[in-house]
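STRUCTURE:
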């Protein structure tokens, strides 16, 4: 049997080139087919399922407002853009957006839970349970007796934490903190529901609460010396190193009835 003659080098190069070209054309064709497929109308988004917190936004309203901003098919829709579109809806704090084969999106919403008004009297900003400032229609609030907190916006979480530490202390005296302010100089000021201002001074949350605890534990004893109850408090200054100063309704600051403790 006669051995086969090797193909000339130019023929082998031509064959290899042909195979490579066929492979490239095949990849291009498959890519084009795939690109056509993912954009085909059969994968056009047909709906959005909304779950989670929808107390302030109905699912139907959300779909109507956000759907026009969600572009693309099931495969091409930008989930990060869709998530941002939902996050820009009033009352929505965060959203998780997932694809649901073959033609839907599933959205799980988390709404802001308001715990306080934020800013100066008359401002309509709100503070959520994470200490984040947000904007929303205050007419949609379920309760209108929220406290008002204020301070540098970047320290909103600190202000909330300090309020949450102080409020139960004053509540034990049947007094509510209506306002808590952290000034630009770092001083804390409270206003009670009786209208009484309370100067808390400077310091960390721990220092402020320790000062307030001393005040709360002895205020009933101090007011009873003048036949008064804690709600007779007109003003208090807790910035003294060895105690605090108070003014009481109906008690003169003249004569022997001083109001220092």
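SEQUENCE:
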């Amino acid at each position: 049997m006669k051995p086969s003659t090797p193909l000339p080098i130019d023929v082998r190069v031509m064959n290899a080139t042909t195979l490579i070209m066929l492979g490239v054309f095949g990849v291009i064709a498959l890519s084009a087919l795939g690109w056509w497929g993912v954009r085909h109308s059969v994968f056009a988004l047909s709906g959005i399922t909304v779950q989670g917190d929808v107390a302030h936004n109905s699912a139907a309203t959300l779909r109507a407002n956000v759907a026009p901003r969600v572009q693309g098919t099931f495969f091409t829709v930008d989930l990060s853009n869709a998530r941002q579109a939902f996050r820009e809806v009033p009352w929505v704090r965060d959203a998780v957006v997932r694809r649901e084969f073959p033609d839907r999106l599933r959205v799980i919403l988390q709404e802001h839970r308001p715990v306080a008004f934020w800013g100066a009297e008359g401002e309509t900003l709100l503070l959520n349970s994470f200490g984040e400032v947000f904007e929303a229609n205050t007419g949609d609030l379920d309760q209108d007796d929220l406290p008002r907190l204020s301070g540098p916006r970047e320290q909103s979480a600190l202000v909330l934490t300090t309020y949450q530490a102080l409020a139960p202390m004053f509540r034990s005296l049947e007094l509510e903190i209506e306002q808590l302010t952290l000034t630009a100089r770092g001083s804390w000021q409270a206003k009670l529901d009786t209208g009484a201002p309370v100067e808390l001074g400077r310091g960390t949350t721990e220092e402020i609460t320790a000062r307030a605890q001393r005040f709360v534990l002895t205020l009933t004893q101090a007011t009873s010396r003048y036949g008064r109850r804690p709600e007779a408090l007109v003003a208090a200054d807790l910035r003294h190193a060895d105690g605090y100063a108070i003014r009481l309704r109906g008690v003169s600051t003249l004569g022997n009835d001083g109001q220092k403790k």
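REMARK: The longest strand covers residues 92-100.
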